[in-house]
Amino acid sequence: MSVLDNWEQWKDFLGDRLHHAQNEGMEQSTINDLAYQIGGYLAKQVDPKNEQEKVLADLWSVATPEEQHAIANMMLKLVQNDGTR
């Protein structure tokens, strides 16, 4: 089962990656840019596996680049308290 199949597992996975990047001293602006790039990759290359991902994919597809950055930043905020730390 892929981490993308379950929304809660996906959030935990993202939270773990976020905490790792922060613990390694990565600047927030770099983390934000990576989240945007990952969002773009997922939107173009990965089929949504659950309802939440379908909503995100739909929003991403109609968003301007600035709005896509906002979506990526909101995902970071959403997962900042998830994962194992």
TrEMBL record:
InterPro entries linked to this entry: DUF3243, Uncharacterised_YmfJ, YmfJ/YflH_sf
Pfam family, any one: DUF3243
Protein name (Swiss-Prot/TrEMBL): DUF3243 domain-containing protein
UniProt lineage: Bacteria, Bacillati, Bacillota, Bacilli, Bacillales
